[in-house]
Write a structure and sequence with these properties.
The complex is a heterodimer of chains A (112) and B (112). Chain A is mostly beta strands. Helices cover 0% and strands 54% of the residues of chain A. Chain A is globular. Chain B has 112 residues and is mainly β. Chain B is 0% helix and 56% strand. Chain B is built from no helices and eleven strands. In chain B, the strands form two sheets. In chain B, strands 2, 4, 5, 9, 10 and 11 form a six-stranded mixed beta sheet that branches. In chain B, a hairpin with a 4-residue loop joins strand 7 and strand 8. Classes of the chains: A mainly beta (112), B mainly beta (112). At the A-B interface, strand 4, strand 5, strand 9 and strand 10 of A face strand 4, strand 5 and strand 10 of B.
């Protein structure tokens, strides 16, 4: 069974631009969560989607948004990029919200 | 104070040693406990998942949970150079199981 896939793997953007990241969960998994990983803050929860509905949201500004499609694929968007948004963005999927999460390889975003 | 505190490391051990990695937590609502291994520039890989106090063994890995003390551990027996990575503990509450809170990670180096 294929794992979680994330595209693109690497991105370089400039301040003020916006970016969209994509995540395809493991086949059959319906819950998708997004995390931001930085050296200073570690892994921080962004949001979680289940059956196209956002169930949870972390403490990030409104510039960070996401959505989930009927096939469970998910996207997250960051508008008006700031230097501090440079990070590894990780997507994790699980069968149901109460099951273990499996991570994708991440998208490394660099904001210049 | 962080909800999850992880022994910071780094740890350096000789091949074949027993490794102990530890986390404490303050939120009594945490019910699910996970250990992930993360190699440099990769996504976290799920090693162990448990939701009850006691020990769970999988090959060379043993996860231990003590809910009364709010303490979890991961033991690695017969450590190998390929175990060199950053280990992350993670946990989440039953009501928000898709929202994991992570420790900051412990970097382990196993020397041949």
């Amino acid at each position: 069974k294929a794992g979680v896939t994330q595209t693109p793997r690497y991105l370089i953007k400039t301040r003020g631009q916006q970016v969209t990241l994509s995540c395809s969960p493991i086949s059959g998994h319906r819950s998708v969560s997004w995390y931001q990983q930085t050296p200073g803050q570690g892994l921080q929860f962004l949001f979680e989607y289940f059956s196209e509905t956002q169930r949870n949201k972390g403490n990030f500004p409104g510039r960070f948004s996401g959505r989930q499609f009927s096939n469970s694929r998910s996207e997250m968007n960051v508008s008006t990029l700031e230097l501090g948004d440079s990070a590894l963005y990780l997507c994790a999927s699980s069968l149901w919200p109460y099951n273990e999460q499996f991570f994708g390889p991440g998208t490394r975003l660099t904001v210049l | 104070q962080k909800e999850v505190e992880q022994d910071p490391g780094p740890l350096s051990v000789p091949e074949g040693a027993i490794v102990s990695l530890n986390c404490t937590y303050s939120n009594s609502a945490f019910q699910y406990f996970m250990w992930y291994r993360q190699y440099s520039r990769k996504g976290p890989e799920l090693l162990m998942y448990t939701y009850s106090s006691g020990n769970k063994e999988d090959g060379r890995f043993t996860a231990q949970v003590d809910k009364s003390s709010k303490y979890i551990s991961l033991f690695i027996r017969d450590s190998q150079p390929s175990d060199s990575a950053t280990y992350l503990c993670a946990m989440n509450p039953y009501t928000n199981a898709g929202k994991s809170t992570f420790g900051d990670g412990t970097t382990l180096t196993v020397k041949p």
